[in-house]
Amino acid sequence: MANADYLIVGAGSAGAVLAGRLSADPNVEVLLLEAGRDYRSKETPPEFRPRNLSNERSINNPDFYWRELTAQRNRYQQEFAYVRGKGLGGTSTINGLCAIRGIPEDFDRWAELGATGWSWRDVLPAFNRLEADAQFGDSAYHGSDGPVPIYRESEAGWGIMDDALRDAALDAGFPWCEDHNAPGTTGVSPFAMNIKDGERVSTNDAYIDPIRDDRPNLRIIGNAEVDRLEFSGNRVSGVRCTDGRIFSIHTDGTVILSAGAIGSPSIMLRSGIGPEDQLSSMNIAPKSVLPVGMGLQDHALVTCVVPTVESFGRRAVGDRPFNCILRYSSGLPGAGENDMLVMALNQNYWLNQANAGVAIILNQCSSRGRLTLASTDPTAAPVIEMDLLEDQLDYARLVDATEVVRDLLSRKPYRDVASGPALIPAANDIRHVVRDGMHMSGTARMGAPDDPRSVVDPDCRVLGIDGLRVVDTSIMPEITRANPNLTAIMLGEHIAARLNR
């Protein structure tokens, strides 16, 4: 059914970008399959529009969330619900709207690890192309006419924790930085967000909805959850959905997996692409023996609660939970530039309590987990073991960060709004209370073809298989020192530009 030049699996943060950019050539047939709903921007439920984190009402909407996913953060904790977006726009429809780039050293490190063509200089044009930065669009390091709006709340609109973090950080000697997405910057900054006129802009809003009516060569099919790949010899010929439908590509066409760091490796594993022992245990005939699922990374974080006076502690759900961040370098062994991030948390409306606080995020981490199949049933969630803080240096830097934050919270800007002592995790408790950023990556790592850790080459082609690429956060050789939202969009932009040459 429906032959195509490019068959893209997943309409999320990278897949929607690929579909929008590749279909700009009227001679190229693009088929976009999405496991969730196909819908127009105007049909987005109102609870997904505010410039806020998801609330209880949205989380309970099965049309926009993969409800059955669970993960285990480490051996000290039980399984928990892992949140991923569903439907056009994917996780960009439900995430925290954090428009933070990885730092130049992240991408230069990718190139050092064998991902040639992915250095900072290489990817900067893709970042600029995606942006419409309201403040810095005229800079050489930003874009002004891209589909993704970049907005920073003025300090007049900040909450009490934003103000307190800014003032305490400046008092502690950290520098002020107007634009944390410019290269070589560090310190306390306004938090860039992808919002426009106070509302979320997903990749569906930015890349698909504005162009789909004028692109007869772009076909979008929703409720098409892919089970596995179809082959002709060692070449991918299409995909099979969980309901038995088969979608095919032209003889020289390409299937691009953009189903995310959980979906893409799961599809490959069910298709015979993965570690030999895992395929054998599931009685799956191997097509290409590769370390699929073995390099999983996510940001580790802990939160510190600041009890506030009643008049400050509660904010409406529509108010932005955070507008200010502090990026800094710990200077500890194994750490690079800006390895740590502190985020102001203005509210706790979920619990309706008069408290707020800060989040401490390990932006550069070495711990790696794994994703494996629970069964060959495509409706069964995979087994996700994150192994957060298993690397001792990761643990040491997060413990050190709690002391940095303890110092910040002891300063006058916080004392003025606190009604009692802050609750900061003790070193012995951190592994028990650490959380993930829901920023999974690395489950199909990109690198040199002769690197045993690689699943895809620098052109995102799956090793040992013809006609198959992976473009989403699963290919990241190392997680970026930033929320992966903008990086995921950049991946789509960068590969689309290569394919359109």
Automatic annotation (TrEMBL):
<dbReference type="Pfam" id="PF00732">
    <property type="entry name" value="GMC_oxred_N"/>
</dbReference>
<dbReference type="InterPro" id="IPR000172">
    <property type="entry name" value="GMC_OxRdtase_N"/>
</dbReference>
<comment type="similarity">
    <text>Belongs to the GMC oxidoreductase family.</text>
</comment>
<feature type="domain" description="Glucose-methanol-choline oxidoreductase N-terminal">
    <location>
        <begin position="85"/>
        <end position="108"/>
    </location>
</feature>
<dbReference type="Pfam" id="PF05199">
    <property type="entry name" value="GMC_oxred_C"/>
</dbReference>
<dbReference type="InterPro" id="IPR012132">
    <property type="entry name" value="GMC_OxRdtase"/>
</dbReference>
<feature type="binding site">
    <location>
        <position position="91"/>
    </location>
    <ligand>
        <name>FAD</name>
    </ligand>
</feature>
<keyword id="KW-0274">FAD</keyword>
<feature type="binding site">
    <location>
        <position position="226"/>
    </location>
    <ligand>
        <name>FAD</name>
    </ligand>
</feature>
<keyword id="KW-0285">Flavoprotein</keyword>
<dbReference type="InterPro" id="IPR036188">
    <property type="entry name" value="FAD/NAD-bd_sf"/>
</dbReference>
<dbReference type="GO" id="GO:0016614">
    <property type="term" value="F:oxidoreductase activity, acting on CH-OH group of donors"/>
</dbReference>
<dbReference type="InterPro" id="IPR007867">
    <property type="entry name" value="GMC_OxRtase_C"/>
</dbReference>
<dbReference type="GO" id="GO:0050660">
    <property type="term" value="F:flavin adenine dinucleotide binding"/>
</dbReference>
<protein>
    <submittedName>
        <fullName>Putative dehydrogenase</fullName>
    </submittedName>
</protein>
<feature type="domain" description="Glucose-methanol-choline oxidoreductase N-terminal">
    <location>
        <begin position="260"/>
        <end position="274"/>
    </location>
</feature>
